[in-house]
Design a protein that fits this description.
Largest sheet: 11 strands, antiparallel
Helix content: 10-25%
Distance between the termini: 9 Å
Order of helices and strands: HHEEEEEEEEEHEEH
Radius of gyration: 19 Å
Number of helices: 4
Strand order of the largest sheet: 1-5-4-3-2-6-7-8-9-10-11
Strand content: 25-35%
Shape: globular
Low-confidence stretches: 1-25, 27-31, 39-43
Structural class: alpha+beta
């Protein structure tokens, strides 16, 4: 069973069906969803979102959460589940992005109306939306058992003042397209949190604490 927060029991009880892992976002039967999707077509609320902003400047790194591109996943949007959609995460705005099928158009689904989503093998949860006192954004579930460990990737657009300085260290990963003559870049930062069984939150500030938290959660996992 998913962890709960004593102070936010009422909120979290309504979200438990959504946030079970790996059953996340699969509460609806596929046949029910397919019937709904065919009937709604382009009128689905999800598809009435605005077109995503275009980052047109030259830069090193990416504003997206990673370099894996749009991956199929399920999303809980305004309390309803949508399945098998190409999704991504704008880690600067902390907004979910949807690639329209057969089109170059990308829709910005925002943040406030999305409770959680999967993207390939990754699961992201809007923790503030279910009552946790953490910075706004989506948190990737890294480990779960009696408690859970989450990682939040945040990107900040930056510019090198010292033109002799290399931005690779600030990007946070090996960028094969890095160009030393481009001084605008997306700085990559990671924030880790351990939400314990009783709902308390611990910020994990180094690799040792992250490793210990994951081992604790996985070591007490029940089936």
């Amino acid at each position: 069973m998913y962890l709960y927060n004593v102070k936010h029991t009422k909120i979290l009880l309504t979200a438990i069906g959504l946030l079970l892992v790996p059953e996340l976002l699969q509460a609806q039967q596929a046949s029910d969803y397919e019937i709904y999707a065919r009937a709604a077509g382009p009128d689905m609320p999800l598809l009435r979102s605005r077109v995503a902003d275009s980052y047109g400047n030259y830069f090193n790194g990416t504003y997206l959460a990673d370099t894996l591109g749009f991956l199929p996943g399920n999303i809980s949007f305004e309390g309803k589940t949508y399945e098998n959609l190409p999704l991504n995460l704008d880690a600067v705005l902390q907004h979910v992005l949807l690639q329209q099928e057969g089109s170059p158009i990308v829709l910005d689904l925002g943040r406030d109306r999305v409770e959680a989503f999967t993207r390939g093998s990754k699961t992201y949860v809007n923790l503030p939306a279910i009552g946790y006192s953490v910075p706004a954004g989506f948190y990737e579930l890294m480990a779960q058992g009696h408690g859970a460990v989450y990682k939040r990737v945040n990107k900040v657009f930056s510019h090198l003042v010292d033109l002799n300085h290399d931005a690779r260290a600030f990007i946070g990963y090996d960028d094969p397209y890095y160009r030393s003559d481009i001084f605008d870049y997306y700085q990559h930062k990671e924030y880790w949190y351990w939400i314990k069984e009783d709902g308390t939150i611990q910020r994990l500030r180094n690799k040792r604490k992250i490793r210990n938290a994951i081992q604790t959660v996985q070591g007490h996992e029940t089936h």
